[in-house]
């Protein structure tokens, strides 16, 4: 796979990482359909700090590897070194605790799981963490993370929105409810532009026509309202959107209001 283009927003750069692919079959209106999805973590470099956002599925349990036909990308450690991060990132940020976004914070070694980036501080919204602990979401992923990393490896993000890190005003979040109980939509604000990362609220271009997703969303109606709100805001400001699961487009700039119910991308500013 050729290297993917980075996005320079002015004083803030987003680098796409190759997290592999996944696929699964579902029944839609009585017919079996297969979905193929990219898995695309991102590396943020801003203000001297480096942050990996949603490090992919990593050593997902064997049942999930079969069920979701998981295909690994190059090790994230190698991709970080190629970008000059010999010792890994300063932070690992988890927008939510579904396995295909967060299990990549772990690696398996000798039958045990450990931190992929032991020198990094890990960031997660407290409500997301607590709800995942109670639900066993992602194969008890929160408990696995706690066991492998220890709670001292985490800094908790709280509230409905604001700065993710006090030292980095360029990186903000909004907590949403619908896909999960505490998914964070991220906003990257550079000197020359803005990018929104909605994670699984807008996983690929198919959701530029906002719709309910009864398969993936915990509360489809609430998720749809959040999806519409996030897209309308991004389109109104001409922001880029990062697509975690799109097979072809990494990020694209939204153009104005919907046309025929669909948000449009500027073809000149959409890159793979």
Task: Give structural notes.
This protein has helices at residues 62-67, 76-82, 99-102, 126-135, 137-149, 220-236, and strands spanning 7-8, 12-16, 21-28, 31-38, 42-46, 49-53, 91-94, 106-109, 112-115, 121-125, 154-157, 161-165, 168-176, 183-189, 194-197, 240-242, 251-259, 262-265. With 272 residues, the protein is an alpha+beta fold. It has one domain: Ribonuclease Z/Hydroxyacylglutathione hydrolase-like (Metallo-beta-lactamase, Chain A). A seven-stranded mixed sheet has the order 1-2-5-6-7-10-11. A seven-stranded mixed sheet has the order 12-13-14-15-16-17-18, with helices on one face. A two-stranded antiparallel sheet has the order 3-4. Strand 17 (251-259) and strand 18 (262-265) form a beta hairpin. Helix 4 packs across helix 5 (137-149). The chain is globular.
Largest sheet, strands/sense/barrel: 7 strands, mixed
Total DSSP helices: 6
Low-confidence spans: none
Beta-strand residue percentage: 25-35%
The arrangement of helices and strands along the chain is EEEEEEHHEHEEEHHEEEEEHEEE
Q: Report the CATH superfamily.
A: Ribonuclease Z/Hydroxyacylglutathione hydrolase-like
Mean pLDDT comes to 93
**CA-based gyration radius:** 17 Å
Spatial ordering of strands, largest sheet? 1-2-5-6-7-10-11
What is the end-to-end distance? Answer: 11 Å
């Amino acid at each position: 796979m050729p290297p993917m283009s980075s996005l320079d927003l002015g004083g803030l750069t987003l680098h796409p990482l190759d997290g592999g692919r996944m696929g699964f079959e579902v029944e839609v209106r009585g017919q079996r359909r297969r979905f193929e999805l990219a898995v695309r973590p991102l590396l943020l470099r801003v203000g001297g700090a480096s942050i990996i956002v949603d490090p992919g599925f990593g050593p997902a349990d064997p049942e999930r590897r079969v069920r979701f036909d998981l295909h690994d990308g190059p090790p994230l450690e190698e991709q970080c070194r190629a970008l000059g991060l010999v010792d890994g990132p300063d932070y690992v940020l988890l927008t939510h605790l579904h396995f295909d976004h967060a299990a990549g914070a772990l690696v398996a070694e000798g039958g045990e799981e450990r931190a992929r980036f032991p020198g990094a501080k890990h960031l997660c919204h407290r409500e997301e963490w607590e709800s995942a602990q109670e639900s066993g979401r992602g194969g008890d992923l929160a408990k696995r993370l706690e066991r492998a990393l220890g709670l001292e490896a985490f800094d908790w993000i709280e509230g409905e929105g604001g700065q993710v890190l006090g030292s980095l005003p360029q990186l903000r979040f909004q907590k949403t409810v619908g896909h999960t109980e505490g998914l964070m939509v991220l906003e990257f604000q550079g000197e020359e532009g803005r990018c929104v990362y909605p994670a699984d609220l807008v996983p690929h271009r198919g959701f530029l026509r906002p719709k309910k997703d009864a398969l993936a969303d915990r509360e489809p109606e609430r998720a749809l309202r959040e999806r519409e709100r996030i897209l309308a805001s991004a389109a109104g400001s001409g922001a880029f959107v990062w697509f975690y699961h799109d097979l072809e487009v990494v990020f694209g700039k939204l153009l104005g209001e919907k046309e025929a119910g669909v948000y449009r991308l500027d073809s000149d500013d959409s890159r793979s």
